[in-house]
Amino acid sequence: MSEQLPFLGKQLVLELYECPLEIIDNQLIVEQALLATAAAIQATVVDIVFHKFSPQGVSGVVVIMESHIAIHTWPEHGYAAVDIFTCGDMDLAPGVEVIRTLLQAGRVEEQLIFRGKGGTHFR
After folding, report:
1. What ranges in 6-115 are assigned the alpha helix state H?
2. For domain 20-106, which CATH number applies: 3.60.90.10, 3.20.20.140, 3.90.1150.10, 3.40.50.150?
3. Which of 46, 100, 108, 112 is surrounded by the fewest CB atoms within 10 Å?
């Protein structure tokens, strides 16, 4: 019998600052960064949707079997907002390092939120 977690999932909210404009305004680089993040946390990719804005910015989501990884970039501010949402108790730290490195963030702030804290017994 598996142990019941006191939550249903974890949402890691990342604020990436001081990212180079040419990195976070490039849809291919941003997409590859999210896929590498999924691999780093050993998630199973289900689908990928990205959009390049004009004149700048990229939004995208990598749907994973365990939930999703999403991003929106503001290249003019060197900023990217990232959410890594997973079911269960996955180790998200390797994903943070991968996305920080690939998007060349000078500074990263993290906020971890435990979702569904009532577990499967809440009403």
Report:
1. 21-24, 27-40, 93-102
2. 3.60.90.10
3. 112
